[in-house]
Write a structure and sequence with these properties.
This protein is mostly helical. Helix content is 73%, strand content 0%. It is globular, with a radius of gyration of 21 Å.
């Protein structure tokens, strides 16, 4: 790799994306390309550490939803986790990205991750001491969301400094595998631990797994700002990053279509209620539903060898999100038939679960997870390839706000609509909206529809 401005710094490689017909663009195997792990040991360590820590994160995220539902018996109260953390998380993403552009990104990531870890320690302590007031969960999860947003934006901004541009889609596919493992293993472990050991032990598992993330960060080289690219601080820095987005239609569209998908096609907040009163099975069912989504993501990443070489990435994103919307609609129809047909199971005992409905719901969620992962691979590739490094932290901050804030908007939409109507209504209405809005929106922005990976433009 090219030497950076400091002795221990890394820098972005100047290699352009492979030309059509070059060996790099003609991958014969469908299996995921492991080249990024071989080329960059720092990226490999970051990838492994983030995967292990992420498992713990999803253990806690699943447990918090189940815990609040057990305390309140209200899906709306579960969705309030999203309401309270949304505004602080948006501010954290914008300012955290500016901090990542101004200072050593390794230091920023370690600091933010430490705050997130301490919030998890606090959550475990609350559970062990039986101080289980709902407002306490809202406060702790908000602090965790703020710190995690800054850490995530910074880690993503680090990756392009560890790999050449032509390997970024392949790195995104590997990230899809780790994300899938997180969502598969984490909720499953949470469901079993909550049912067998209780919430205190469940949160403690996250405290321990989180330590693996520090290994990946501590072993990174210093990632300081590029020489000759001073970054102003404070609000001016945030404004500079947002101003760049105004002249970056392709990056803006990648954000917009994801917001549409996550706002109207995010059924995760419904899983505790589905397991309690629709399909049955309680916490185990909720964990299986979330794990199914992740399995789809893993499978799509494992078979991404040729997919990551696609040239027309805007169209790939559009098509993937349309499939996602149709899969969410399918989930809603399964729930509707189960409920309206009189086959609902109001039992937390997994032995009583409606097995056919569970199998169909898991299939729909697996398809949705695979489509969402394909979309994420190309959205991340566009962002990391087309945005200059001195603005990458701030743009990644906005991206992190979108990918973490979008699901929170989705929780608000689904939780509120389910409270006013029925559990099956949000995925049915939302799935239709996702398909229609994405097709119409992409059709109106030609530069995004015709985005060319060989000529990346923001």
């Amino acid at each position: 790799m090219r030497a950076g401005p400091g002795e221990n710094d890394t820098d972005e490689q100047g290699t352009r994306a492979p030309e059509a017909g070059s060996p790099a663009s003609q991958r014969r195997s469908h299996f995921v390309d492991l080249t990024p792990l071989r080329v960059s040991p720092p990226f490999a360590r970051l990838w492994v550490g983030n995967a292990l820590a992420g498992i713990g994160t999803f253990v806690t995220n699943t447990a918090v939803g189940l815990h609040i539902y057990d305390l309140t018996r209200s899906t709306f109260m579960v969705s309030l986790v999203a309401w309270f953390s949304l505004a602080p998380m948006i501010v954290a993403g914008l300012y955290g990205g500016a901090i990542a552009d101004r200072f050593d990104r390794r230091t920023v990531a370690i600091t933010a991750s430490t705050v997130a870890w301490l919030s998890t320690v606090t959550l475990a302590t609350v559970a062990w001491l039986h101080l289980e007031h709902v407002w306490v969960f809202y406060v702790i999860t908000t602090v965790n969301a703020v710190a995690a947003t800054i850490a995530s934006a910074t880690r993503q901004a680090i990756v392009p400094r560890l790999l050449p541009k032509e390997l970024l889609p392949k790195a995104a596919a590997l990230m899809g595998i780790s994300a899938g493992v997180m969502v598969t293993v984490g909720p499953g472990v949470a469901g079993v631990l909550v049912a067998r050991a209780g919430y205190a032990w469940t949160y403690t598992v996250d405290v321990l797994l989180f330590l693996a993330g520090f290994f990946g960060l501590w072993t990174l080289p210093r990632i300081r700002p590029e020489a000759g690219r001073p970054v102003v601080g404070g609000f001016r820095s945030v404004v500079e990053g947002l101003t760049h987005l105004r002249s970056s239609p392709n990056v803006r569209m990648s954000f917009l279509v994801d917001i549409i998908a996550m706002t109207f096609g995010q059924p995760m907040v419904l899983f505790p209620a589905i397991g309690a009163v629709v399909i049955g099975g309680g916490a185990v069912t909720a964990g299986l539903l979330l794990a199914s989504f992740a399995v789809g993501g893993i499978v799509s990443s494992l078979g991404s060898g040729r997919v990551t070489g696609l040239r027309w990435q805007g169209r790939a994103i559009r098509d993937a999100i349309v499939v996602y919307g149709l899969a969410v609609l399918g989930l809603g129809l399964v729930l509707a038939v189960t409920t309206l047909g009189g086959h609902a199971v109001a039992s937390r005992d997994f032995a009583d679960v409606n097995r056919l409905a569970l199998a169909l719901a898991m299939l729909c969620l697996a398809v949705a997870g695979g489509a969402d992962n394909v979309s994420a691979i190309f959205r991340q590739s566009i962002l990391q390839s087309a945005v200059p490094d001195h603005l990458r932290g701030r743009t990644q901050g906005v991206f992190t706000v979108v990918v973490t804030g979008g699901p929170r908007l989705g929780q608000m939409f689904a939780g509120t609509l389910a409270t006013l109507t029925a559990t099956w209504v949000p995925p049915v209405v939302g799935g239709v909206l996702v398909v229609v809005l994405v097709v119409v929106t992409v059709a109106r922005v030609r530069s995004f529809r015709d985005y060319d990976a060989l000529d990346p433009r923001p």
